[in-house]
Amino acid sequence: MSGARGNATEAALLNAFVAKGYDVLVPFGDGHPYDLVVDLGGPDFLRVQCKTARPVDGCVVFNGRSTDHGRGRMTYEGRADIFGAYFPPEDKVYLVPVLSNFILRLRLGPTRNNQRRGVRFAGDYEFERWDAESLLKVARGTWVESEIALEFA
Questions:
Q1: Where residue 91 falls among pLDDT bands split at 50, 70, 90?
Q2: Could you tell me if 126 and 92 are in contact, meaning their C-beta atoms sit under 8 angstroms apart?
Q3: Of 16, 77, 95, 118, whose CB has the highest number of CB atoms within 10 Å?
Q4: Each residue of 141-152: b (16+ CB within 10 Å) or e?
């Protein structure tokens, strides 16, 4: 990330993790596929790619791919564990495990037809909903999106 907007996003994510009691490492230099590394204790670390989200049609939206100069657009799969999305209009932070999707949408409210299946609701991904066990699952690659209703019930 670059510029004031990127710095504000990284600061919001850093603050959220530190306020929850985690130690956070900041990689030196540019070119890493993650912006922060969260120490989960023991041998476990969580690689966080920070993204600034924007409102689009009732959703929190952010880009889930990188622009590696010279290599084209790439997914973050295998290169980062989780997206930390900062949504400035509401001063909120969301955590979304890295998936193969390129554009990620989190719905802020109900759909017009009240559909729930296949819809990612922003409330399910709010920073405060994630506990240490869930973050460990993401870091270890054992978190499954279909479990979200069970984990956050």
A1: very high
A2: yes
A3: 95
A4: eebeeeebeeee
